[in-house]
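Predict the 3D structure for this chain.
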Amino acid sequence: MTAHWNPSSRPAMRRALAAAMLGVVLCAVAGTSRLASAEGSATSAPAVAVGPQYDSTHVYVPAADFDRCVASLLATFGGSATPKGTATVTPTPSSTYSQLVLTPAGSFSVFGFQTPVPYPFGAERNGYLVTDLDAGVRDARANGADVVVAPFPDKIGRDAVIEWPGGVFMQLYWHTSAPHYPELATVPENRVYASPDAADRFIKAFTGFSGGSVVSDDVAAPGIEIGRATDTYRRVRIESAFGKMVVLVTDGHLPYPYGRETTGYDVPNLAETLERAKGAGATVLVPLFPTVNRISAVVEFPGGFIAELHSARPSR
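Done. Predicted structure below.
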């Protein structure tokens, strides 16, 4: 049957058309609002950080070198250590010596496995204490991280391992009883080496997760900072409630030991600190050198742990 148009129905049709168009507009607005809300939740969730004194560098050394490494860190930086213990810190069976070293320049979680290390443990550069592990994992995932080790319990809390764009592994952890560590005299910097392909994706993801901000982005930083004195490279500094981070964007043509140091430590007097380190069995891999606003060096501690150390450059 064919429908016929009735001229007398024109006003009703106009009203119906107007109502339909209004409905489309309202649906579009609602959809846009939901999209904006979803985008916002992925990049502006409340930070779950506790503080930089709770963010420890993970130090994996052979079990035979464990005690020498802990003693060397304490002699170099000062501070104190928790009692040495043996624990399972992975979701699958394993055994490791474990000790937390608390220094004025940063915290170290030292591990000396007596069994093979289950994958991917050993790849995570540090552990970040969060106020809520499930929220932290959710926020990390929403900002582009992969959860490579799902949350699992340990004797004092829960842990997870995440991977950021560019292959940057970190641990998130939560304690059943909140720890209380002394504030740091200086805040260390998490040193992340990234390719030009991944750097911006990593920076966006991490700042979204941490609630941090880029405090400097130097596209022509002096190459001496990465062992290439005649070149320049891009250096991005980030600060958040987790502490400091520097993203070193390079082509990967790095002379040893650059790229092996995962953390940089700010010390009051670099020359004196290097002497203490050498006296405690550490090796200075890159002697003291000046760069922008600081003097730096690279040190290897007993067991193979490599770190960058720096002090503010003396004013003339």
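Residues 6 and 157 are 74 Å apart (CA to CA).
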